[in-house]
C-alpha cells in the first residue's frame, strides 16, 4: 500500500516538474521563483493535476497573470484532457476563549478551476440573441457584402479565421446589430457552440459596476472565460470609461489568447474612437474591420420587399420609389415610413399615393436636408451612365463620360443656385463658357433625340423626388 502511494506521489510530482520546465522557458527567473517555486503538486488523478498554493491571493494572481502559461504547460504534459485544480491554504482567524491572543488555524479547501486548463467545463450561457435576426433576412448588397461575407465565415469557424476580432462599423440604422445577432444565431444553429453571449455596452458596464461594488472583479473576468463567442454592441460607448476599459482589456486578452471569437460593433472605425485607450484600439485592429455603407437604391427596395412581403405589393411602384429615394441613410427609418404609410392607408381609409408619402416622410426627414447638391446630381448621373463619379471631373473625352459630364452641368444649372463659374470649378476646374456650351448641347440633343429626352426626364424625376 505504501509502495503504491509513493508511486502516485512520484507521478504527480514528476508531472508538475515537467510543467515547471515548460513554464521556466516562458516566464522570467524572478517571476518564476516568486510565483511557481512555492507551488506543490498534491495529486494526479484521471488527468486532473491538483496543485497547492499558499493563499487565495496567490491563486488569484496566477489566474490574472499566468493563465495562458499554465494552460500551455498542462496541454503539453497531459494533453487535451488535462485539467488543473487548486488546493488553497485558507487562513481562518479564531479567537481563543480565555486568552488575549489570536492563533491561526489552517484548513484545506479545494478550488476547482474550470478556466485555467484546456478541458474547460461547459455551462449554459443565456445568449441574449434575437432569433428573428438571421442571415436569411439580412439582404446583401454592395453596401454590406464584405461585412456579411466575413460574418458568414466567422459563423462557420468561430475563432478559427483571421477575422478575430471582427469589428463591424457603420452609421445608425445600417444593420450592425442585425448582422451581429445573425452571426451568433448561426453559430448556435450550426452547433459550433452554445456558449455565445450578446450584450450592449450598457449591459457590460452595469456588470462591471456591480462587480466593483461586490469586490468580485476576478470572478467576473473568470466567468467570461466560459464564453466561446462574445458579441459587444456599440463599443464606442466605452469611451472615457477608464475602469471599464481596463477590465474589458483583460477579458479581451484572455479570450483572444484562448482562441475565443470576439465580435464588436461601432458607429465609427477603430482609428476614430476618441476616448478609447490606445492599447484597446490596437487590439480592435488585430482582425478585420468591415464597414456598412449606405445601401444603394436597389438594396433598399429589396430590404422592404423582404421585410414586408405581400404587404409591400399594396404600395404603388412610384410611391415605393419616392420613399426609397428620400430615405437613404437609415434602414429603420425606411421601414418606419412604410409601416406608417400602410397603417395610415388602412386605418384612415386613405389611398397610398405620393401625397401621403410626402406627409409621412416630413416626420422623418429634416427639411434642411432636402436641398439638391452637386454631389447628388453627379451620383444620379454617374449611376445612370454606369461610370465612376470621379471621371466626371477628369479630362477624358470618351463619349459616354462627356455626355454624363454635360448632363450633370445641365442639371446643376437647373436644380441648384450655383453660379456658372462655381459649377465649372466643380467639374475639374472648367470655366463658365464650358458650362454654357454643355447646357446648350444637352438642350439641342433633347430636342432631336426623344429617347435621350426620356432618359433626361427620368433623371430629372429622380432629382425632383430627392427634393420631396
Explain the overall architecture:
- The chain is α/β, with parallel strands linked by helices and 468 residues long.
- The protein folds into four domains: 2-112, DnaA, N-terminal domain (GMP Synthetase, Chain A, domain 3, 2-Layer Sandwich); 145-292, P-loop containing nucleotide triphosphate hydrolases (Rossmann fold); 297-369; 371-467, DnaA protein, C-terminal DNA-binding domain (Chromosomal Replication Initiator Protein Dnaa, Chain: A).
- The protein contains 19 helices and nine strands.
- It has helices at 2-26, 29-35, 56-65, 67-78, 145-156, 176-189, 201-214, 217-224, 242-257, 278-284, 297-308, 317-326, 331-348, 354-361, 374-385, 399-415, 420-425, 432-448, 450-467, and strands at residues 40-45, 48-53, 83-95, 102-112, 166-170, 196-200, 229-233, 261-266, 288-292.
Please supply descriptive tags for the structure shown above:
GMP Synthetase, Chain A, domain 3; five-stranded parallel sheet; 4 domains; elongated; alpha/beta; Rossmann fold; 468 residues; four-stranded mixed sheet
Amino acid at each position: 500500500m505504501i509502495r503504491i502511494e509513493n508511486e502516485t506521489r512520484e507521478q504527480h510530482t514528476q508531472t508538475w516538474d515537467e510543467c515547471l520546465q515548460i513554464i521556466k522557458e516562458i516566464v522570467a527567473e524572478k517571476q518564476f521563483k516568486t510565483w511557481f517555486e512555492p507551488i506543490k503538486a498534491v495529486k494526479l488523478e484521471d488527468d486532473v493535476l491538483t496543485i497547492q498554493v499558499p493563499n487565495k491571493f496567490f491563486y488569484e494572481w496566477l489566474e490574472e497573470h499566468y493563465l495562458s502559461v499554465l494552460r500551455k504547460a498542462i496541454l503539453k504534459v497531459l494533453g487535451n484532457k488535462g485539467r488543473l485544480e487548486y488546493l488553497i491554504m485558507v487562513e481562518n482567524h479564531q479567537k481563543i476563549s480565555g486568552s488575549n491572543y489570536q492563533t491561526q488555524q489552517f484548513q484545506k479547501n479545494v478550488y476547482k478551476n474550470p478556466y485555467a486548463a484546456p478541458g474547460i467545463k461547459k455551462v449554459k450561457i443565456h445568449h441574449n440573441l434575437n432569433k428573428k435576426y438571421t442571415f436569411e433576412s439580412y439582404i446583401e448588397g454592395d453596401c454590406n457584402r464584405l461585412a456579411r461575407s466575413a460574418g458568414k465565415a466567422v459563423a462557420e469557424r468561430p475563432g478559427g479565421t483571421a477575422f478575430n476580432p471582427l469589428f463591424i462599423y457603420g452609421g445608425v440604422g445600417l444593420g450592425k446589430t442585425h448582422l451581429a445577432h445573425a452571426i451568433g444565431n448561426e453559430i448556435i444553429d450550426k452547433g459550433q457552440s452554445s456558449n455565445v453571449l450578446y450584450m450592449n455596452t450598457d449591459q457590460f458596464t452595469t456588470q462591471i459596476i456591480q462587480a466593483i461594488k461586490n469586490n468580485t472583479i476576478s470572478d467576473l473576468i473568470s466567468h467570461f472565460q466560459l464564453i466561446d463567442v462574445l458579441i459587444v454592441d456599440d463599443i464606442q460607448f466605452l469611451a472615457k470609461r477608464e475602469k471599464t476599459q481596463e477590465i474589458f482589456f483583460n477579458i479581451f486578452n484572455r479570450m483572444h489568447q484562448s482562441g475565443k471569437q470576439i465580435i464588436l460593433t461601432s458607429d465609427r472605425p477603430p482609428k476614430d474612437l476618441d476616448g478609447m485607450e490606445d492599447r484597446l484600439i490596437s487590439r480592435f485592429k488585430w482582425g478585420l474591420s468591415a464597414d456598412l455603407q449606405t445601401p444603394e437604391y436597389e438594396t433598399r427596395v429589396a430590404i422592404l420587399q423582404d421585410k414586408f412581403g405581400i404587404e409591400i405589393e399594396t404600395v404603388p411602384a412610384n410611391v415605393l420609389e419616392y420613399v426609397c429615394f428620400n430615405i437613404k441613410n437609415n434602414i429603420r427609418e425606411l421601414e418606419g415610413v412604410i409601416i406608417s404609410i400602410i397603417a395610415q392607408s388602412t386605418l384612415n381609409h386613405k389611398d397610398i399615393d405620393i401625397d401621403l408619402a410626402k406627409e409621412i416622410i416630413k416626420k422623418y426627414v429634416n427639411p434642411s436636408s432636402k436641398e439638391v447638391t452637386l454631389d447628388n446630381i453627379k451620383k444620379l448621373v454617374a449611376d445612370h451612365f454606369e461610370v465612376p463619379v470621379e471621371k466626371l471631373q477628369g479630362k477624358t473625352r470618351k463619349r459616354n463620360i462627356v455626355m454624363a459630364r454635360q448632363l450633370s452641368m445641365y442639371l446643376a444649372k437647373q436644380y441648384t443656385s450655383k453660379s456658372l463659374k462655381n459649377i465649372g470649378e466643380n467639374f475639374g476646374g472648367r470655366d463658365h463658357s464650358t458650362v454654357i456650351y454643355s447646357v446648350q448641347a444637352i438642350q439641342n440633343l433633347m430636342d432631336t433625340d426623344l429617347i435621350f429626352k426620356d432618359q433626361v426626364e427620368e433623371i430629372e424625376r429622380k432629382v425632383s423626388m430627392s427634393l420631396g
